[in-house]
Structures are given as C-alpha cells and as structure tokens.
Amino acid sequence: MKNYIKENKKGLIIVFIAIIITCSLGYVTANINRGKSSITLTYVNEEASTPRILSNDEKINILLEQNQDKINFYAKTFGIDSLLLKENLKKEYNSLKLLDITTNIDLSIINYLLNLEETNTELFNNTITNTNKDKDYIIGLINYFTKIYPLVDFKIAASIAEVESGFTAKTMLICNNIYGGFSRGSLIRYKNIEYGTLKYIILLNDGYFNKGLNTVSSIGYVYNPTINTSGVKVASPTWVNKVNNSLNKYNEYKSISEIKELFALQNN
Predict the structure, then answer these.
(1) Is the Cβ–Cβ distance between 80 and 125 less than 8 Å?
(2) For the whole model, what pTM was predicted?
(3) CB contact at 8 A, 161 and 146
(4) What local confidence, expressed as pLDDT, does residue 187 receive?
C-alpha cells in the first residue's frame, strides 16, 4: 500500500484537490488504474439532473415570444399597437387561459380584440386602407381563418366570395369587402382586407354554419333568397349554381396552417 501511494502520490493529490473544489456543486468519482499513470475523473452535478420548474410569468413570456408573428399580424389587422397588445395579453393570460394546452391562441387573441374594440375604441386605428393584395393572398386569408373557425367550410367560403367579388371588384375592394355585405343600403366598409376577411368568416360561422346552415342551398336561402314562380321563398338558383360551380376550383388548394405561410403570400 505504501508503495502504491508513493507511486501514485501525484495522482492522488490531483483527485483530492478536485474533490475540494467541486464539493459545493456536486460530487466527483475517481478511478485510478493500478500500475498506470492515467486517472479518470467523473463530475456529477446533482442540481443539473433536476430541471427547474418555470414560473407562469416565464411560461407566458416564452409563449408570447413564440407567437410574436401572430401578435404582429392581429395587431395590424385590428389597428392596435403590437407592443400594447403583447403587454395586455401578458396581463390577461390567466383569464384568457393562454397557458392551457387546449387553448387556440388565434381565437383567444381575436376574441380579446373584438371585446376590446367595444370597451376601448380609442386604442384602435380605424382608418380605411385600400387593399393592394392579390387574389391568392385573399384566398390565403380565407383559408387561414377557416382553420380558426373549423365549422366554416373553406371551399364554400372561398366560392361565395369569388361569386360576390371575384376578389378583384374595385368597388368592393375599396371597402375591403369581399362578400357583398350591405348595411343601411351600402357596402360595409372595413379598415383593411385582413379585418374585412376575418369579419366575413365570423359572419359565416356565427350566422350560418353554427346554426346548421352548412350547404350552399341552405346558406343561399338566407344569403341570397328569391321568390320562385309558386311564390315560395328559395335560394336563388342562379347564385347556388355559380357557387357550386366554383367549389371545384378549391379542391387542390394548398392549405395554409402557419402565419408565416400567409406572410409569404402577402409579400409576393
């Protein structure tokens, strides 16, 4: 034993020093091979093996950072400062259940902003911006918003808008109105094309699909009715045929599921 200590004196000193230095952080195991000059040190940090639990404030900060693109998009859509929106979402995350894994963050932000519009109108810029976006971008908006409101059939929504506006009618695009919505005898004017398209999808969701009106004919009975030769109210046959004929155009449409895909269309 004395000979072993004498032969490995230098190695034992190194191990002893290492243990003293690291004892406050973890522990060190040493393996000294007899008859060899090599020494293997293994450091085990017990603290590192136990992950730190994040606070809710940390979790919401991470969530909002991960969804910054969506926050910017909805801030632009509603005409509110994006930094203000982010701060408000941070304050209201608990009531909005943003940390619940089942929460649709898009829908939560939209509903929050719709309510905020009614209670704090001064926070919003309602200046009307005429759209310079093309057909593909508008269809992309319809597709993205129908993912948020899954009751609304994308193909029907896109087909109705195409029949009503063709996505190019200047008189309608000036109003950012793609579906022919009227109020008090004139086209409804929306602040931008994103907002107008969102309002269109919400209209279909709340006024039609959510009430079981989910076919072109049943929607047309309310959306575009007429009186037939027997004096009975029906969906306009011409309108129904046009919408049905348009449906096939969207069978092969590449679905948009991420806001970045929408941005790509916007910047084309």
Answers:
(1) yes
(2) 0.81
(3) no
(4) 96
